[in-house]
Write the structure tokens for this entry.
Amino acid sequence: MNNHLPADSIEAVTRGLASAGYIASKQIATAVYLAERIEKPILVEGPAGVGKTELAKALAAWRGLKMIRMQCYEGLDEAKALYEWKYAKQLLYTQILKDKLGEVLGGADTLSAALGKLHDFGDVFFSKEFVEPRPLLQALEQEKGCVLLVDEIDKSDAEFESLLLEILSDYQVSIPEFGTVVALVKPTVILTSNGERDLSDALKRRCLHLHIGFPEQKLEERIVESRVPGISQSLRKQIVGFINQVRTLDLKKLPSVSETIDWARVLVLLQSTELDHETVKDTLNVLLNYEADIETTMPQVTTFVAKAGRQGVFG
Amino acid sequence: MREELHRFFRAARGAGVRVSPAESIDAMKAVADVGFGDRGILRDTLLLTLAKSQDEKQALGECFDLFFSQPEVKDEATPADAAEGAPPDSMEGETQPGDPGAQAPELGELAQMLMSRDRNAIAAAMANAANAASLSDIRYFTQRGIFSSRILEQLGIERLRDDLDALTAANPAEAERLAAALEALRENVRDVVNQALVLYGREETENLRNEILRNAPLARLERRQVEQMKALIRAIARRLRERYSKPRKRQRRGHLDTRKTLRRNAAWGGVPFLTSWKRRHRDRPKIVAICDVSGSVAQVSDFFLLLIHSLHEVVDDVRSFAFSGHLIEVSDILDTRSPEEAMSEIMSKVGFGSSDYGGSLVDFEKGWIRTVTAKTTVIVLGDARTNNLDPRADILRRISERSKRLVWLNPEGRMAWGWGDSEMPRYAAFCSVVRQCATAKQLERAVSDIVAAYQ
């Protein structure tokens, strides 16, 4: 696979992601294709567990690139996201070089002469050797390019968002002590958000906005097929049919794709070949995370299973 | 095609999607890359580059479908006119096969097009005419007539009329056919103009309507306006949320947090490489709202409560009380029910009485005076018309002393305060602020000021 050329068609992107085990809908493939073509980051929004983070992983795996992940949280700042000075190393070096410094400065008679000599060193201690690169800076320094995943950007503070703007639009960061670092190869940037708060317009403007919702039934079946090998076609159909009906209920947290996959795995482990309401009731806790949701769903299980079973026969 | 895209951007702005020049450049680039071949892909591409939220995606999707369905509308309309003209058409086919060719030279371009039923040519001519008449400048529905006639003029209706006159004398049957086609053409043009109005005029029309609505007195809204007003209140709530829901921590520059700094630098033997600064925590607003729900004030209270209770992200704690003859707490009703249900329940419990400010203040002091703390803003919404009962301004004084601020919102104009049974001047002595609050605009400013006092 040629790493540096963008894919030449949307179909190629779909195929490539599929080879990495990610079944992409047309919108997702179009977004990835465009992101590479017009060199813009993708901002992915959607409910938890629909494969936002997975998209970045699959993209990295397909392209054979390193994935650098930055998990956002409240209070994340420059020092943890961009770069930090290696204070301990600076301190150690000044200790070791003390004698050397004495030698160099020894020739100077007056204080101002010593100061002048000291200036000649330049900013030895504030050079690249003493910079500890954090994810954002690392991403710019990758020689082969990389996939930079800024995960759950909505969790971070508004100030951090502004910090990202320079990287997102120009693929560079400014470090006051030694200037601007420009990306060697422009990384593919993917930002994810669960919509916990509204992101600023400035950030949104710099990104392609992709919303991943719950997939269509057909697509979800294909996803299960690729993720859970060894599952029979009829069971797969029933599982997806059942889950799609659960999603019509008024729940606190709707089951998403990751739950579908987990549940399918569980059923395969339990060696079920058919969806029957006993097994479903026993394993419902895999699917739903809140007690209240389970209580809401429980009385509906029998009807849902029957309906999903019919779909399996005729669908 | 670039023209077409530019017009689409305009239409998108009309649909409420904010398209900045930078975004339109990106969209252009992206479209240049994917091409116009596949409509689905083109749609995805535009949604990806222009829309910035799920709502916008939906609006833009609808706009896209409408925009690019234009040619189809014409196609639908033309068969209809073909069907109308079908009988004479078949008749003509039988009787005078050679004639059209003989007449052709004397007819104008448009008439020829219509007679030959060249659908594509007509569609193209119409699009050109619409461009020439700068149809995308249409803003208000009152402009429909002028744009229709401009387009028809561009199409060459003058010449067509002459042709029609000439033809009526020479060949009445053909003339009838042409007249029918002309009628169909007019209809087509009207459709095109209507669609353009939907596409390009929406923004202006809506702005105008909202502006009128914002300044309309809340107490005297018509039934159909109430729904629109609710939507407007929701928009106001969203705006206030966006403005005030930012984190409330702010650094106090220059005040070192010694303890935190030492702890953070323990790894370097307490040499303070990393400094921590003291932060000041800001309180989220706590609000106690006391609303008169009698008679003419009810509608205003309605909207006020609706607004306050949709500010969850901004306001920490809201306790709402409603009164006319006596006072009850309505926070739970407002939080659990839909706005309509909540309002009708509140009205059935306390509404429709004559208001007794004194009695209600006594009720409040007896039951809930403890909810008022030094961090609370108390908002009273009412016209202060006490029906000549004892106003009990002394209770209001005590509430005022306990609270951070006491704000009185009065739907009546300043001129009416103190006239008749209005006790506003007596109450006003104990209020931090008294302001008129009769329109959505004043409501927004009042709530915005209350919340801003905590920033």
